[in-house]
UniProtKB/TrEMBL annotation:
Segments for region (Disordered): 31-51, 216-236
Record's signal peptide: 1-21
Coiled coil: none
Entry keywords, A to Z: Signal
Annotated transmembrane regions: none
Biased composition (Basic and acidic residues): 217-234
Organism from which the protein derives: Thermoanaerobaculum aquaticum
Superkingdom as given in the UniProt entry: Bacteria
Protein name: Cytochrome c-552/DMSO reductase-like haem-binding domain-containing protein
Amino acid sequence: MKARYTLFALLLAWYPASLLAQVTGTVQLGGHGTSEKDNPARAGEYSTTQSGPDAAVSLQYKADGFYLGLESLALSSDQQKHDLTFELGRMVRSHTTFSKLPHRLVHDSLANLAGAIADVKIVYATDMDPAARYGIRYDELTNHTDIQLPQAPWLTISTDYREQWRQGHVQALSTSHCYSCHVVSVTRSLDLHTKDAGISAQASFGGWHVKATVSSRDAREREGAPTRTYERAQHPSLRTPLFDDRVVFDERSGPLPYGWYPSQEKDTYRLAINNANVLGFSLALSATSSEISNTHTGNEVDYDGISLAL
């Protein structure tokens, strides 16, 4: 289990002078110690197990027509959150967040898989890395910005941006069939990068709200998949090739990759129209069109949909 102890905390109030007189905020400094036993993935699945200093910062700066705010919390190198907000004369409103988070994963021992029955059907498992600890580090950057000009108060232009990194090691399983059900566990490196970007325009007039959005996603796996040469596909008792019509790969196919995280590209277009009172009814109409492609295989999927709610 995990125990967390707060060692000390110090609260500092900033009273800057002269040019920084409009800055207010607080700084908190502290430290923590962590111990663990048994299963750290269950005791601290999404929290740090590192001991050391931590800090929290909250700062605000206000001037004529301008606001800047910073909120920051750092508990360790793998658990942090930072928020930056700024406004410019109410014409531009922007919020940016960067966060880091650990995710510890359970290592399946595969001990529950061993078994056999009288006519020599066998299930067994091999763990190629039994002492491995699995986990993923999440890093995410997001930004949302609204632009609203005084000359067109009925119109709001918005942009959204998001990047996510997932890096670490996970348990990858593969199974040979027929002659024996042989499950093999290996350690798989993971390096997933996802990028989302979008822009939208929203207009409001006479009770109507119209919003058009265009967005794009690019998801990439930058580590190769593990490979395995599977055992010969034969009848488990007779050892004859009766399953050739149902098992399409075995040792004759050579090393084959498995556990793919397919890289994808996706473009989405959406139009939404809303009115809270149309002859006494609420109306919500939306249309969505998206194009998804798998960059590994070249497969593509198109989607078009319309919804109406009254």
